[in-house]
Design goal:
The chain is of the alpha+beta class. Helix content is 31%, strand content 18%. The chain has nine helices and eleven strands. The two termini are 17 Å apart.
Length: 363
């Protein structure tokens, strides 16, 4: 005989059952927890996003011949470490990060050697860094300006000194439709008290140093291994989206440079950073990409000094071929920020290198 409770449960959508299961798992470890309706909706978004990611990963696993599979444990909800996932998901939801929106949070499944299940790691995207900086900032800027500087642009920083009370800059685009290659970039924090304004600028080499160690050629351009019948048969060039990746790197740097308030740091923020730290030694591409959903299947092969994890799929070697530069349409006219009006230099000497340095079943 079917009870009213069973009928009510069967009528619930999978995402609602997931939300209830996450909250039940979370509260079983720490007791009652306050979760607003908005946060519950975000938790449902985590179910939808993760379900798509696990389904795709399992399809790829099954499509690989059995003798070539790196992992024999199915990537299904039954093999997900739910207690750990519950802690991460509740923390991310309370911070306000939505996996359904581009570049807020990346969810990465990886195998835990000790539990035999898949953990779900979390790394914030560049928009996620913006939200976190605004939520936990000691003093949030009223504006954050981020720009790439091209070969034909004119850029002159004005650093604070005895003659200049405000740190600012002059920036002019001289050739709107043929700006040349990227030579550098900068970010500028604007505060209500202009004396606190902050300018930081970097040449191209300094920006590329922040590129993820295992950056994907599909994003950054360059060469990647060409596979045929589960074997590498050569190399193929990929154009990638170099300029977009460089700009996103500047954005990440800009919001990472905002001072946080220790009084605002809570358990949710600490949990997010803990999850990120667990993934630091894993060879994955952390590049943000607005054209893909915020889930990534972990590709790991040879891991050193990381006892907690095992390989899931094969990783392809990183190439160091510098991608060709692309031309980009200008998006702005001459920009003048608060400060004295000065004549910009004829070329961007600032960015030149020194010449001396050569579905779960929640029953």
């Amino acid at each position: 005989m079917t009870t009213d409770l069973e009928v009510k449960k069967s009528a619930q959508t999978p995402s609602i059952r997931f939300t209830n299961a996450v909250l039940a798992e979370f509260t079983s470890g720490i007791g009652e927890v306050q979760v607003a309706e908005h946060h519950k909706r975000l938790i449902q978004n985590y179910f939808i996003t993760l379900d798509q990611s696990l389904s795709l990963a399992e399809t790829k696993r099954l499509a690989t011949k059995e003798e070539y599979r790196k992992e024999n444990v199915p990537m299904t909800w039954q093999n997900v470490n739910m207690p750990k996932l519950a802690v991460n998901v509740v923390s991310l939801a309370r911070i306000g990060l939505d996996p359904a929106l581009p570049n807020q949070i990346n969810l990465i499944p990886y195998k835990n050697k000790h539990t035999g299940k898949y953990d779900i790691g979390c790394i914030d995207g560049y928009r996620g860094k913006e939200l976190i900086a605004k939520k936990y900032a000691y003093e949030s800027p009223v504006d954050v300006i981020t720009e790439l500087v091209y070969a034909t642009d004119k850029f002159k920083p004005i650093k604070k000194d005895i003659s200049h009370k405000i740190e600012t800059y002059e920036f002019e685009v001289t050739n709107h439709f043929d700006r040349g290659g990227v030579v550098g970039g900068f970010y500028y924090h604007v505060y209500e008290d202009e004396k606190k304004n902050k300018l930081m600028f970097y040449n191209l080499a300094q920006i590329e140093k922040r590129k993820p160690k295992y950056a994907s050629a599909e994003f950054w351009g360059g060469e990647k291994d060409k596979w045929k019948n589960n074997k590498v048969v050569g190399k193929e060039k990929v154009e990638g989206w170099l300029e977009e990746m460089l700009w996103k790197t500047i954005v990440r740097m800009a919001y990472s440079d905002i001072t946080l308030d220790s009084k605002k740091i809570d358990a949710d923020y600490v949990q997010l950073k803990s999850s990120e730290n667990e993934l630091n030694a894993i060879p994955i591409d952390n590049s943000d990409d607005s054209d893909t959903r915020n889930t990534k299947t972990l590709n790991i092969d040879n891991i050193q000094n990381k006892e907690e994890i095992e390989p899931v799929t094969e990783v392809k070697k990183e190439t160091k071929t510098k991608p060709p530069e692309k031309k980009q349409e200008a998006v702005s006219e001459k920009k003048t920020v608060t400060g004295e009006k000065l004549t910009p230099p004829a070329e961007n000497e600032l960015f030149k290198e020194p010449t001396t340095k050569k579905k779960p079943s929640f029953e």
